Amino acid sequence: MTDKKQSTELVLGENEKDILEDNSKHYFQVDFLKAAMIFLVIFDHMVSWGVKRDIGVTLWERISIPIFLVIIGFNMGLSFKGKGDLTLKQLYSKEYFKRKILRYIVPFLILYTVSTFIGLFMYGFDIIEMYDRQFYPSHGFMNLFIGILPFWGPGNWFIPVILQSILILPLLYKGFTKKPVLTLILCFLVEIAMQTTVFFLIGEISSWEEIHIYNMFATSILFYLSAVGLGMWFSSGYKLEENRNFFMWFLYPISLAFIIAYQFFGFRFMIGNVSFLRGDYHLLIFPYSAFLFLLAMRFLPQKSERRISRAITLIGKSTYHILLIQILGYGMITAYWGTHYGIDVGFEPDVILDMITAWILFISFGILWYKIDQNKDISRRVLYYINFFIVFTSLLFFSFWAQGFWIPIPLLIILGYAVIALITISIIKKPLKTRILGYWSLFLLVTFIMLVLQVSVFQRSEFWISLIPIGVCLIFAILGTLLVYFPIKKK
Questions:
Q1: Quick one: 299 exposed, middle or buried, by C-beta within 10 A (0-12, 13-18, 19+)?
Q2: Nearest CA to 34 among 3, 75, 4, 2?
Q3: Are 287 and 187 a contacting pair, CB within 8 Å?
Q4: Would you say 392 and 362 are in contact if contact means Cβ atoms under 8 Å apart?
Q5: How many distinct structural domains can be found in the chain?
Q6: Which of these, 382, 481, 20, lies nearest to 235 by C-alpha position?
C-alpha cells in the first residue's frame, strides 16, 4: 500500500476510509498477520481432525481465528480513535453503517445468491436435498436466520460474528474511552456469562436440537468478546514493555499451560461430566494468541515497501473476500466428495499439491473479488461478477469432472474464454470498454446456462443443442466488438 493515509483494514478487511490514530502510520505487522492467518484458515478446512490432533494445531494453526478477533478490536479501536472524541450517536452514524454494509453485507449477499444457485445445481435443483445433505443436521432451520448459508461451506460460522461486530464495536469502543480497565474486565465477564448460559441451558449435548441452540451462541460475537476486548485495549498502546500491558505477562503463561494441557493431555475444564468451556476459542485460549499479536507488533517492521511486502499487504486487505470464496469453494468440494477434508489420516504425499492448489485458487480469486469491489462503476462490477463467479465455479467443476473423464463442451469453452481473456488483458493492459465487456459477459453467461442444461437436462448425445445458442452469442459478441472499434460511418 503506497498511500500513507490509507488505514489498516478491520479483520478480514476494514474500509479504506477509516483513518488511524496517526495518519502517517501504516501497520504492516497487521497485514502480515492477516495474510498468514488466512493461509492457516484454508489449511484448517483442508486437513481433517484425525491429522490435526497429532500435529499440535492449537499452538500454531488454531491461532488464526483468535488473532483475527484480536485484530478486529485493534483496528476498530484505531479507526474510531482517529476520528476524535465522538458521541455514541456519532459512532453509530449513517456513514459508518453505509461503509459496513458495502464492505461486508453486500459481498455476503452476493455469496448467498451465487452459492445457493450453485448448490441447487449440484443437488439437481432440489432445495431439500441440498439442505439435508450439505450440512444438516449440524445446523437447523433456525441457523439460516443468523447468516448460515443454505449451501454451507466451512468457515461460514465466522460471518455472523463479523456482521454482529458491526453492531457491538462502537459501544465497546465508547466503554474503552470512558472506563478502559472496567470495560476489558467486562469483556471477560460477558464471555464467562455466555459460557455459563450454555452450560446451564444445554449442559451435555445429547441431541441435534441442542447443537442448533449451541450454534446460536457459538456464532455470536459475545462468545469471543475477550479477544476483541484485548485487541481494542492494545489499540491505545501495543508495546509489551508498557506498564498497561504488564498483565499480559501473567495471562500468557496461564494460557500457554492450558493449551499444552488441552492439546497434548486431553485436559478439559469439566464440572461434573460436562465441559464448562466449549471448544478451543475462549478466554483461556485467547491470551496466548493476543501475546503472539504483541510479539508480531514488536518484532515485525511497521513499514515495508518491498514487492513481496506489497503482495502481503494486498492479501491482508483481501482476507474477508478470501474467506467468502473459500466458503463457496469448499462448499462445492463438500457437495461433490461428501467432505471438504482433502488431507486425512493415511494420506499420500501427493495430496500436499491439493493444499497448494487450494491456497493459490482461493487467495488469488479472493484478491480478484476484493479488487472488483473497489470499482465504483456498478454496471462494470456486475459484469465482472458474472465473469468472476462463472470462471471460478467452472474451474472447480473441471477438477471434478476431469477425474471422471467427461468434460462438457460448454465447460471447455468457458475455460478457453478465461485463458483468452487473461492473454487479452495482459496485452492491452487496460480495462475493456463497458459495452465490449457486456457483449462477452453475455456470451459467457449463456455458455454457463447451456452447461447447466447439458448436465441437468440434456442427454449426452444431445450436446449439440447447447452449441447453437453459444454459437449465436459468440457471433453477436464478435460483431459487437468489431462495431465498437470500427463503427459504421454514416453517409
A1: exposed
A2: 75
A3: no
A4: no
A5: 2
A6: 20
Which cell numbers hold the place of 445?
Answer: 453467461
State the pLDDT at residue 22: 38
| pLDDT mean values, one per 10 residues, the chain (491 residues) | 34 36 68 98 96 94 97 95 87 95 97 97 92 82 86 96 96 96 98 96 88 92 98 96 96 97 92 90 97 97 89 96 98 94 88 94 98 94 97 95 85 96 87 92 96 85 85 95 83 59
CA torsion sign for 238, 240, 242, 244 is positive
Q: Which domain holds residue 182?
A: 28-310
d(CA 214, CA 205): 9
Angle between helices 28-46 and 286-299 (to 10 degrees): 140
Q: Tell me if 251 is assigned to some domain.
A: yes
Per-residue pLDDT, 464: 78
Report residue 284: phi and psi, to 5°.
-85, -15
152 and 237 both lie in a single domain? yes
Residue 359 forms part of a structural domain: no
Q: Which residues contact 429 (CB under 8 A, 6 or more apart)?
A: none
One-letter amino acid of 462: E
Long-range contacts of 416-422 (CB under 8 A, 24+ apart): 417/391, 417/443, 417/444, 417/447, 418/391, 418/394, 421/387
In a domain, 490, yes or no: no
Query: Roughly what angle, to the nearest 10 degrees, separates helices 307-317 and 28-46?
Result: 60
The reported pLDDT for the residue numbered 25 is 63
| Strand, helix or coil for residue 270 | strand
